[in-house]
Task: structure prediction
Amino acid sequence: MRVGLDVMGGDNAPQATIDGAILINKELPKNDRLVLFGDRDLIAEELKQRDENPDEFDIVHAPKVIGMGEQPTRAFVQKPDSSIAKGFEYLKKGDIEAFSSAGNSGAMMVGSIYSVNNIQGVIRPCTTAIIPKEKEGITILLDVGTNPDAKPDVMYQFALLGSLYGKHVFNIKDPKVGLLNIGEEEKKGNLLAQSTYQLMKDSPDFKFYGNVESRDLFNDKVDIIVTDGFTGNVVLKQIEAMYRILLKRGLTDEFIDRMNYENFGGTPILGINSTVLVGHGISNDKAIKNMVLLSKEIAEAHLSQKITEALNTYVENKKQGNNN
Amino acid sequence: MRVGLDVMGGDNAPQATIDGAILINKELPKNDRLVLFGDRDLIAEELKQRDENPDEFDIVHAPKVIGMGEQPTRAFVQKPDSSIAKGFEYLKKGDIEAFSSAGNSGAMMVGSIYSVNNIQGVIRPCTTAIIPKEKEGITILLDVGTNPDAKPDVMYQFALLGSLYGKHVFNIKDPKVGLLNIGEEEKKGNLLAQSTYQLMKDSPDFKFYGNVESRDLFNDKVDIIVTDGFTGNVVLKQIEAMYRILLKRGLTDEFIDRMNYENFGGTPILGINSTVLVGHGISNDKAIKNMVLLSKEIAEAHLSQKITEALNTYVENKKQGNNN
Result:
């Protein structure tokens, strides 16, 4: 398997990405190859400074960079030689099986939708966060920012996408889906949550638990928590803020340590015909490493194929009127 | 000043409310009186068990209780002898100047809107949470659940109400208002946040800082954070969940201690013609005490009069087309 990394992406690139690439190479099995997308000379120089052998990496020359502040669509189209555009070119050709970047996440989304394409039937791709359960294991929260104005049918699909991600990548048996709300009762919440509940109730496509509240984020009521991208992003950034405060104040333990975003490093863009991961702009080498290793696991689990199959069933169910 | 407490309200009533009443009486100045609403015999018995002199309290006999699960409007109308309905009766007559309950918050809202009434010009009353800043001081978050589907003009008023609460009750000079969003830039967020931003920009009614994110909840960028009741409730319950986890795990310090909801005990219902506070169902004696003492401070600050005056200016500004 060949997995790609955008060396130029992220606030700390290329130092953090090169350091991350070296860490990745130490953990990748012999048959796998890491493919670096970026300026060839820069990469060679950075590897040389670290006494690393450039032959250990495949390097695809991409002299341009899409900056963090650039308008995504325009930049993606106007810079075919950028590390992000090159990555998608290789992904589309099948020369790599996964592509990760801590750079301009908007441009990564543009590449995902226009170059790799949505899986047929998926209304809107989405992104996820991994939240540690206090006891053990994880909860998958989605969406976390890609769809700030999600509609009920889109939220319904998040539940399906999240369930498949949990099942095939994190080996969660029969994942339970909760709808994030401000009360447990069916009629609680805003209109979006109320309508989404009605769609999810009796779903044949996933195991619906019912409403959960933000106080349930860290317990084991459910495995997948579905919300709109606005609320999900607020929840995620609040966890990150609290983690950083606790770290700074020395108030950590085994559970708090598991809140560190570096442990997973990035989120797949769920619902597209390939494996694409986006990382935090502030990613360090450890985060970069874990993002790329996660991309390999997701590709190996054939997640996008699994989603494609499930979407076929979902469309069948809809046709037969079994559901919304 | 006479301040009222619903003795029958809350998961731990009447034990927690009676214990709280005793704590309140120790801290209330001589000229102030605590008025207890509830079953006279029950109150007398509870006080006797604690060797307290019933003459120290004013007791208003209210033999009925509105349960936590009762439909608020129906219960309020059908139980004029309940502690909540009696409290509002006294509040309306002017026999008490503030009324607090940890009971059915829906019934407290019904009483506020139908018995005490909205301040003229206020579209929707709202509720608040006090969040500790890491350095020192507090941030006021609103709404936290009363308006899950708030509209931009309602959110605009939250900013005004929150500013006045911060200024007159917490002595925050010239409070800065932030709009909770998922990015700092003007165009970020869902449609609600984007539209609200446009209304708040250049507001003559409060000091608008711009967008803030949930990572800014605990820092000193702003004093007032405005959001819809859905998002605000999610944020609040997440703070509470994290606080409980940290407490359980022994990961506390001076800052974490300040997250304890007991420190303020309750939230005023902002935007009505009197001082009404609602507390957490799980309130203990300390929370009850602090809620009632806060109600006294709010009444003494003449907050609802201050809001009435500001609303007049706001309506004037609107008429003159200075704003939205």
Q: What stands out?
A: The mean pLDDT of chain A is 96. Chain A has two domains: 1-122+271-324, 124-263.
